[in-house]
Each structure stands twice: as structure tokens, then as C-alpha cells.
Amino acid sequence: MSHNTQTAQKADRLFKLFLAFFRIGAFTFGGGYAMIPLIQKEVVENKKWITDQDILDIVAIAESTPGPIAINTATFVGYRVAGVLGAACATFGVVLPSFLIITIISMILKEFQSLKAVQYAFFGIRAGVLALILKALWSMYKQCPKKVISYVIAAGALIAAAFLDINVLLVIIGCALTGLISSVIAAKRGAK
Amino acid sequence: MIFWELFYTFFKIGLFTFGGGYAMLPLIQNEVAAHGWLSQEELINFVAVSESTPGPFAINISTYVGNQMGGIPGGICATLGVVMPSFLIILIVAKIFDQFKDNKIMKGCMTGLKPAVIGLIASAMLSMAQTVFFPNGIMKSVLLTPAFYVSAALFAVMSVLALKKVHPIIIICISAAVGIAAGYGLGL
To answer: Which of residues 135-164 of A touch B (CB under 8 A)?
Structure first.
């Protein structure tokens, strides 16, 4: 195979990655987890770039590394399919629809937010949003392992942030360390 | 300089977000409110906007705040900032994938991080509830205003609908309609 066709194939693959993730970004409502079935369909079933097992591993890692799941997954899949450039194309693709839509919406919001009807609508919506967050909390609670240490950490984080006014970043670091220490202790006990 | 400030702040937010969806909310509240870039009410409003538009909350909120503070270049800086930590960390992790897959240290940290995110979102929700139900402060005893009752009733009914898995967009639409009806009807 000549060098030129190889380069052309690579460029073609990068463009397809960009397009696939652009579609994924444009058709997901509600964020990272909602995106996973779409990624599976595009990348595993349609394009056959990676296997089902790979996707599961990738999602597991996207959950346990810093950064929002949507971006982590896009970067990882892009890297797997076409290296660093692939990661860049997939990430750019997943970000672009949001970026364009929100840029337009923030202009529209500026125009209309002084209208009485819009203010009333948002007055109602704010109560609805609280309900949505409550629902999200409930789902997260159901997925979280029900161990004593989990309850202690969740309660500790809540109290530290809500009542003691401790910086959120510090709370996150503290909870990660607490989790680490508790798992080391649990492992030692298990070994004995 | 606002552009650097946006990039740096959202870089920090991206770096400390674990998980998807609302995991970023407490951090946004913390960092963005501290800068005075967004009021609590605007943030809650934007959660609704983000739920009704495509794309992950993380990118939507970064683009929005960036845009508000520094126009389109501001949006680009904030979005780049939130994406960058993910991008760099995943590139490294992808290279050492096999060592990372069963890394005990990372797993240990995650046993702390998962419940921490729940506690932090609950804390974010509490302060949001304060804004929604008592916009003028609890002390001013607004318990008797019609706005309080409308919000409380809406929250109760919408929570039931949300837990019954009614789609977020439908919940937002009903809430908006009730808000408009109550606003004009009761002259709020």
C-alpha cells in the first residue's frame, strides 16, 4: 500500500470519528450516562471499531478518573480507534454540538429573560429542577454500595459542605483519602 | 484576565469532577458562585436549560458561563478548560490501561468518592432549596407567601413524577406551565 492511500485512510477514519461523536453529542440529553448506549450503538455495532467488552472497561475507567464521563469516554474511545489524533477528534466532536447550541441559547436567553412570562416560567421550573436533582440523588444512592463506610462518608461530605462551609475541593480530597485508607484496612483484615 | 480565569477555574472543576450528570454541580456552585459569575437562581435555571438541550451538563454549563462572562472567546476558554484535564488524564491512562484497570489505589479512592459525590450533591440541593423556597432568606419568614406554597406543591408533585421516571423535559414543561399560570393567576 502506498504512503498516500495510508494517509488518506487515516484522515478518513479521523473524520468518521469526529462525525460519530458529533452525532452522539447532538442526540444525547442529560449527560454522560445517557450517552453510553449511543456510543455503544455507533462505535461497537455500526462502526465495529471496538468490542462490547472494551466499551465496558472504558466506561468503568471513565467513571473512576477525574473529569465528566462524557468527555472521558469520548477521549478514550478516540484514542483506542486512532491514537492521540483520534482522541482529539472524538473529544472535539462530542463537545461541538453542545458548544454551538448553548452559544445560540445564551444569546436568546439574554433577549427574553426580562419578559414577565419567562420569569414566571423559570419560577416554576426552579421547583421542578429541585425534583430532578432529588431523583438523580435517589438513583445514585441506589447504585452506591451499601456499606457503613459509604453512609459515613456521604453524611460527612454533606455536613462538611452544607454546615461547616468547608471547600468542596477539600471535601473531595478528604473523602478520597478516607476511602483509600478504609479499603487498605479492609484488605489487611481480609488477609489475616 | 477573564479568559485565563475562566480557563483555570473550569480546569479545576473538570479535574475534581468524578462521575457524570450532576456530579459537577457542587463544584460549579462552589467555584462559579465564588467568582460571582452566576447567581444561584441562574444556575438552577440553567440546569433546566441543559436538561432540555442536547449534550452533557458539563460542557453545556461551561460554555454558558464562559459565554456570559467573555462572549464566544470566553465560552471557548471555559469549555477548553473543562475538557483539558479529562483529555490529558485519559491519554495517560489509555497508555497504561492494563496496569490501571485493577489499580488498588484508584479503587480505594473510588470507595470514598462515590458516596462523597452523593453527599455533596445533597448539600448543593439544600442550598438550592433555600433559594427556591426562601428567596428572601429564611429569617424573613416568607412561609405565608403564595409563591412559597406554589413552589412547595410543585416540588412535591414533580418529585413523585420524577421518581416514577417521567422524562425530565416533561417535568420542566409542566413546571413552566404551572409557573406561568400561578404567576399571572396569583399576581406573584
So the answer is: 135-138, 140-141, 144-145, 147, 149-151, 153-159, 161-162
